[in-house]
């Protein structure tokens, strides 16, 4: 009896390599089931995600699973079942999650889960993740908090000079009459 040999198909190896290269440039991945979407709806979703510097790609589950394994990412094979499309985010994964969940309210898209910066999230955790403020919102809040003491000092110092000017004006009016 002969030994069992696995034949490696060059096209499949190339497809996995291309996926791995594409995945390597992104920090966040949100897995969705896109059944029931029309071409126009997928195009609209892709357009919305492009505005957020993200991409929406339909993938072969086995190729994606192998690519994630070769990248030493946590196991996400439970999300790679059935028709799967991945929303890949560069910076703001929270914004991409918000956009996907908004789109899911009016269409048949279902969020399966996600992989954000090496952490695996299920669909409920993605919903909670989407409610977090974005990096820009957090920075704006921080800057407002940092600016408040200086602003209050300016108001206090401005109040002293304003009082002095009003007092001098009142004295000048009193002497004039």
Q: Key features?
A:
five-stranded antiparallel β-sheet, Alpha-Beta Plaits, 58% helix, 6 helices, 177 residues
Describe this structure in words.
- The protein folds into two domains: 10-132, 2-Layer Sandwich (Alpha-Beta Plaits); 134-177.
- The mean pLDDT is 86.
- The protein has helices spanning 10-24, 39-51, 61-70, 93-106, 123-130, 135-176, and strands at 28-33, 54-59, 84-89, 110-116, 119-122.
- With 177 residues, the protein is α+β, with helices and mostly antiparallel strands.
- It has a five-stranded antiparallel sheet with strand order 2-3-1-4-5.
- It is elongated.
- It is built from six helices and five strands.
- α1 crosses α3 (61-70) and α4 (93-106) crosses α5 (123-130).
- Helices cover 58% and strands 16% of the residues.
Choose one word for the global shape.
elongated
Instruction: Tell me the radius of gyration.
Output: 28 Å
Multimeric state: single chain
Q: So, CATH architecture of the largest domain?
A: 2-Layer Sandwich
What is the CATH H-level superfamily of the largest domain? Ribosomal protein L10, N-terminal RNA-binding domain
Question: Would you list the SSEs in sequence order as H and E?
Answer: HEHEHEHEEHH
Q: How many structural domains are formed by the residues?
A: 2
Q: What are the low-pLDDT stretches, counting only 5+ consecutive residues below 50?
A: none
Mean pLDDT: 86
Concise description?
With 177 residues, this protein is of the alpha+beta class.
